[in-house]
Predict the 3D structure of the following.
Amino acid sequence: MSTHSPADLNVGDPAPGSPVALDKPTPGAPSSHRWWVLAVIAIAQLMVVLDATVVNIALPSAQEALHFSDGNRQWIVTAYSLSFGSLLLLGGRLADLIGRKIVFLTGVVGFAAASALAGAAPNFAVLVSGRALQGLFGALLAPAALALLNTTFTDAKERAKAFGIYGAIAGAGGGIGLLLGGVLTEHLSWRWTLYVNLIFAVVAFFGGMALLRKGAPAIRPRLDVPGTVLVTTGLFSVVYGFSNADSHDWGSPLTWGFLALGVVLLAAFSWSQTRAAHPLLPLRVVLDRNRGASFAILGIAGIGMFGVFLFLTYYLQLSLHYTPVKTGLGFLPMIGSLMVAAQLATNTLLPKFGPRPIVPVGMALGAVGMAWLTQLDLSSTYAANVLPPLIVIGFGIGLAMPTVMSVATSGVRADDAGVASAAVNTMQQVGGSIGTALLNTLAASAATAYVTDHATSNPPSNLVLAHAQLHSYSTAYWWSAAFFAVGTVLAALMFRSGRADLSTEGDAVAVHM
């Protein structure tokens, strides 16, 4: 059992072992199979994370096969992000109330079924419906997976290793998705970018059935229905508003109207949580200084990371004429440096120094790397001009992301672990939605302005259009660098100095699995 000083406990928390805590596990915990549990969780999380990008490369092929318009193409991505982003907090709370094992396995089975439906889609409507169902079951799976990780590894050193691996997967999943999407689309079919989830799901399901403990909360408070309605509709409105900004104008009521509505609903949700008997997201989860800083950094990093994954993909394919597979391979060095940094950060640096020096350095490296990418032009080569900044960005993300994930889920009450994990995923998802809309809009505007200023013929020459593309990518990189820079400052100011409390109430929560 972890020892706690009074300063380690959240204000108002019962002491571990009090009647409010969950039942204690059977003797012999922690499980001797915990590293196999990590493998199961990692496979399931990879399935969810890479699905945000694996389909992107397949979109042109899917569009040609199912004959839908360019305007409808965005809904293949938006349908997933809308249901996933808006239902995450509900999924996390259900994991707390029902039990994480059953919610995890339900999410795995449902995600697999939705992937099969989308992969076999005979038309656009079925494909979009399948993607929306993927998001729904992903919202059950993702927070349950992170909560299981948090409750399985209670020893500080082992927990650091586990979060290093998990954080590396979360950060590298987008790049892995690009590689896998390219291979499957080029050599099999666009449908296999969806069918591949069945392979992950079979391994995760049977591994989860065999390794995760059964159990349920000793006390099951009622679900906060008003809070659930407010936060679900609020997050839906925010994600939908930013999604519309990508296809409409920022001045469109479909953009600013939904964004304003989302802000109002989320403000009402925050107010309701101070008065609810059983709040969906207890404010003690987010008001801790280190956890609050971690949530903020997750959102900002989510915006900034979009710049490298999307616009560098465009650059490699459209400017350097890489194939989808070669594009995916181009991201492997970034994934490698990210994984090295993740293990260094969580195993060595975080226990010794705490998050305050680590996260700002990681975010600053992200800013430097993104600014470095602005120098790319039509004569650039991968080895000399793309590889160095890519390694810097990967190392920076590897320092920052696993660190803030570990801190964001440390020291929470046993019955809050699921919703705290959901808040981690929510900040990433909302950040990604903002990045999608904002950077796409800024890049498109920059390209249009460049053509207007430099075109000497109508239509513009291919050279002018190529330079307009480069200018749009550079604009996106600068904005991504700015977000990483803001994150650097916030991390330096918000995190406490000294070592963080990385303890968990694992002895009180293992039965929850």
Remarks:
- The chain has two domains: 30-223+280-512, 224-279.
- Confidence is low (pLDDT under 50) at residues 1-30, 505-513.
